[in-house]
């Protein structure tokens, strides 16, 4: 790769924005143990302050997603002002209908009309929050489903879901969108009411233009060709957003690009091919991760850098050469063009480009040297550390 090649992809790289989830800064774990970390935020403000550190050293993460009720505050306009003061803004609002007793048998798809009403009202509350935070996207992920064959009527639940979503959609402002996330299993194991992109697509297509699919990279069966789903959703103009993370086995929520950087490259290559990184693209890129054993702020810094690195590599695919090889059915030639881009080490040029924008060449080292971690550890004494679920 020449510096001229790199200069050609710089405008796209400079536009790149990856939203951080507030919950990545709280404690998290498995059903075996949630380990705590000194200095973990206790409030939404402290989570936002930590997220702002990621943006300060990378310039890649200008917004923070909130989760309601985990990030409930009395004054959301004040929370937004706090965020802006720290150099970031608030982003997607995530609803939560999976932690109340009432939702044991589902929420928006529940058989019980009172439970559906409660879940719809919760989404209305989330839209009220969006109106105060200026958020564009409402993200819905549902734990709804069943554990046993015959437990409930699968077909009827789809109808309930459609009706509930339509009620929520109607309530959105004209510049607001809803993104519906799918997940193939867990916590329901026999069936999930939104298990796959097809179901999410069918449900959002019935709502209207401002209803789109959210693709969480960790929510597929092993071996699924996720880039194919990306291509199809972009083709259908229904790819709303990404929840990036990586997995070895299930919904591991590990650092994006850690388990399989080549898969991340292939996904981003397809995003670029489908116009998802064009200047007028409305596709939102977000992390949905938890840091169970590693330090959280560096974990998020590593994550956005992984996305940036694979984006740079994918942007370097020689499209003209690839097209020519594909048209000639030159199987190995086309594959070689694709792999050449994947094997390009973009790190030195990304470091230079960071420096030219007044950012540290090495964000991981810069954060470690900043003293922020030691200062917050000393400062954040007492109170209750935030966790996945609080
Ligand atoms: C649960 O699987 C989950 O990780 C979903 O991916 C949501 O996006 C996230 O929680 C936050 O609600
Ligand atoms: Mn997710």
What are its keywords?
390 residues; alpha/beta; TIM Barrel; eight-stranded parallel sheet; binds alpha-D-psicofuranose; binds manganese (II) ion
How do the strands and helices of this protein lay out in sequence?
Elements: H1 3-15, E1 20-21, H2 44-58, E2 63-67, H3 76-85, E3 89-94, H4 113-133, E4 137-141, E5 145-146, H5 154-171, E6 177-181, E7 191-192, H6 197-205, E8 211-216, H7 226-235, E9 239-244, H8 261-273, E10 284-287, H9 296-315, H10 319-327, H11 331-342, H12 347-356, H13 363-370, H14 372-379
Parallel strand pairs: 1-2, 2-3, 3-4, 4-6, 6-8, 8-9, 9-10
Antiparallel strand pairs: 5-7
Helix pairs in contact: 1-9, 2-9, 2-13, 4-5, 7-8, 8-9, 10-11
This protein binds alpha-D-psicofuranose and manganese (II) ion (MN).
The site of alpha-D-psicofuranose has 8 residues, from loops.
How many strands, which pairing sense, and closed or not: the largest β-sheet? Answer: 8 strands, parallel
- Estimate the strand proportion: 5-15%
Number of strands: 10
| Assembly classification | single chain
Q: For the CA atoms, what is the radius of gyration? A: 21 Å
In the sheet with the most strands, the strands line up as 1-2-3-4-6-8-9-10
If helices are DSSP runs of H or I spanning 4 or more residues, what is the number of helices? 14
Q: Compounds present?
A: alpha-D-psicofuranose, manganese (II) ion
CATH architecture: Alpha-Beta Barrel
Could you name the CATH topology?
Answer: TIM Barrel
Low-confidence stretches: none
Query: What shape does the CA trace take?
Result: globular
How widely separated are the two ends? 47 Å
Specify the helix fraction band: 40-55%
What is the domain tally?
1
**Average pLDDT, all residues:** 97
Q: What structural category arises from helix and sheet content?
A: alpha/beta
CATH class: Alpha Beta
Going by CATH, the homologous superfamily would be Divalent-metal-dependent TIM barrel enzymes
């Amino acid at each position: 790769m020449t510096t001229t090649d790199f200069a050609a992809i710089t405008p796209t790289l400079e536009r790149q924005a990856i939203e951080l989830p507030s919950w990545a800064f709280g404690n998290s774990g498995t059903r075996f143990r949630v380990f705590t970390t000194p200095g973990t935020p206790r409030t939404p403000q402290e989570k936002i302050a930590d997220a702002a550190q990621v943006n300060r050293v990378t310039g890649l993460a200008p917004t923070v997603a909130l989760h309601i009720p985990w990030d409930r505050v009395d004054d959301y306009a004040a929370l937004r002002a706090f965020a802006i003061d720290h150099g970031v803004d608030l982003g997607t609002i995530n609803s939560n209908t999976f932690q109340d007793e009432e939702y044991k048998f589902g929420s928006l798809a529940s058989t019980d009309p009172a439970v559906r009403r409660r879940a719809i009202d919760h989404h209305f509350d989330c839209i009220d929050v969006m109106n105060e935070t200026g958020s564009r996207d409402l993200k819905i992920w549902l734990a709804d489903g069943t554990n046993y064959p015959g437990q409930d009527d699968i077909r009827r639940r789809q109808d309930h879901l459609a009706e509930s979503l339509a009620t929520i959609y109607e309530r959105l402002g004209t510049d607001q969108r809803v993104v519906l996330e799918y997940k193939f299993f867990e916590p329901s194991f026999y069936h999930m009411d939104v298990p796959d992109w097809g179901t999410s697509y069918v449900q959002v297509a019935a709502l209207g233009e401002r209803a789109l699919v959210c693709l969480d990279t960790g929510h597929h069966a092993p071996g699924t060709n996720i880039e194919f789903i990306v291509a199809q959703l972009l083709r259908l103009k229904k790819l709303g957003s990404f929840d990036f993370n990586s997995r070895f086995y299930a919904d591991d929520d590990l650092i994006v690009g850690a388990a399989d950087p080549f898969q991340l490259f292939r996904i981003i290559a397809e995003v670029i091919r489908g116009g998802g990184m064009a200047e007028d693209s409305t596709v939102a890129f977000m992390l949905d991760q938890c840091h169970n054993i590693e330090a959280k702020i560096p974990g998020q810094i590593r994550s956005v850098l992984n996305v940036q690195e694979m984006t740079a590599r994918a942007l370097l695919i020689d499209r003209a050469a690839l097209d020519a090889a594909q048209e000639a059915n030159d199987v190995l030639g086309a594959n070689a063009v694709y792999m050449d881009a994947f094997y390009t080490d973009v790190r030195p040029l990304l470091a230079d480009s960071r420096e030219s924008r007044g950012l540290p060449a090495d964000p991981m080292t810069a954060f470690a040297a900043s003293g922020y971690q030691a200062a917050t550890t000393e400062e954040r004494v007492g109170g209750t550390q935030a966790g996945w679920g609080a």
